[in-house]
Amino acid sequence: MFGHEEEKKWTKHQILTHSRSKRNATGEISNWWTEETKQIFENKSDCFVKQYNKYGLDGRRTLVENIADNGGLQQAYTAFLSWKEKQVSNIKLPKLEEYSIDQLFFIAYGSIWCIKYAPGILNYTIREAEHAPSPYRFSSSKSFPPPKVC
Asked: Which BP terms in the Gene Ontology apply to this protein (predicted)?
């Protein structure tokens, strides 16, 4: 969740204010993005919009949260890999022995998105919410092949 909020804070500022500037050491506002950086950000944003539009969602409306979900997952997985390197043995959980520790990471992450929507709430979420519906928040991560957990 921390990674999600950090990603959202940065992304929301960039998208909603269209600001590519920050204060320098003397307090003056200066542009810190190169033209190439701006183009990369726009291209990646467009990719997210198209990806979520394919699910019948409004990828533009959910863009900030979608980037935050994917970026937060990337941060969490990077931290997990760092933790994993320091472990002496491969941890196995009872009744889940067939899964690798990496698979267990994604099962744990995916399980937070396993919810059942009350009647009408899913349609409302698709039409109005800033967040994509829960199943798409997990299964839409292009960086990782998610296991089936629901």
From this structure: protein processing
